[in-house]
Design brief:
The chain is α+β, with helices and mostly antiparallel strands. Helices cover 30% and strands 18% of the residues. The N and C termini lie far apart (96 Å).
Length: 219
Amino acid sequence: MKPRVSHHKTAALTLVEVVVILSVLAILLAILLPALTPHHGGQNINCSNNLKQVGLSFRIWEGDHNDKYPMQVSVTNGGTMELVAAGNVVTTFQVMSNELSTPILVLCPQDIKRQPAATNFSSQLAGHISYFVGLDAEDAKPQTILSGDRNIAGGMMKNGVLEITRNDPVGWSSELHGGIGNIAFADGSVQQTTSRKTSWNLRELIGQTGLATNRLAIP
């Protein structure tokens, strides 16, 4: 009696099947890799969200103070007019501590030099702020600048206050977002801008404020 011989062959993938599998893996990798890899863009989105919360806090505060921001109210009346005009940014965020609720909101996630965030709104807040304060922002003028990333470049600095005219060359340094920055306006909106000649060019947006000179207190 002859022994039985198995005629079953080991299963093997065809070339087409191999190509299909590799294609599926490549697609999955392309989808998952951005989510697993840290990048500046995601941090910039967080920074934009911070400024939206900062802008909302400003608007809540001014709603309780005759439609005026802290920069428009004298220190004797609970504002920061005299202090912020001398470049003191800290006090403006301190008087809005109830509206902000946490000092994390005034620190850009990418601002390594200012990390970690302050744990409260006491004196330790100084040195942990990433956003400037616009001295000329008014609720009645929605396109005036309320706040924004501190790495703005250009204009003339005077006692902690950066003065920028319509004709000044202005842009963003690469310190925080690599030539991209965020501006919060008096109407509560936040716009991501660039230093380049685009539709969202920083210099053009500054020109649309309607002010001959924009004053920004830089932290």
